Amino acid sequence: MLADLDVDKLIPSKCNKLIFKYSRIFCDVEKFKDDSKEIMSKKGMGVIYTKDLDRDIFNPSKKYKSNIIKSYYDKYHDKLNKVVSTTLKKYNKCLIIDLHSFSDIAMEKLFGYKDTPDICIGVDPKYTSKELADMVTNFFIDKGYSVKINYPYSGTIIPNKYFYKEEKRLESIMIEINKRLYLENNYEIKKDIDILYKKLLKK
Hints:
- The protein is of the alpha/beta class.
- 34% of the residues lie in helices and 12% in strands.
- It has a four-stranded mixed sheet with strand order 1-4-2-3.
């Protein structure tokens, strides 16, 4: 429930993929590495998880945490910075699609949510235009999926290099797919993801 199982199989082959190959329990590269800035750290789910859905699992030392951040978190973000910078230099624009999955069980245990949608769209006020958010949201709605913006998760990944400034050539949007759509539905969602990616490539 705390792993993006088989999400990589939903990514079209032509996309430039950057996949973190480790469980988010080990190191969650989507979180702020400073726990004071990360709201989920209060639930024991910061950059390094100390809890799973309903129990304590780990109490890392400062040295351990520092080593994990340096060896895995920082290296991943260095790669992300490089990929984005190279893409901007080559094409003068870059679109990040931050693809994840979530489960109904995890959402209920973590937040008490019982009304989770098929698709969660995460947006950032600086790096997700209304045009992009509307396009992706309406696409899934037209395909018959239930969709919510910034619920149950919010935001989208922004490369560290651009986090505190605004790069107008860069856009990012998060797509969180409910696991029930692809673990129980024989990957019907993949066909729609392929169509969406083709539309976004023409944007």
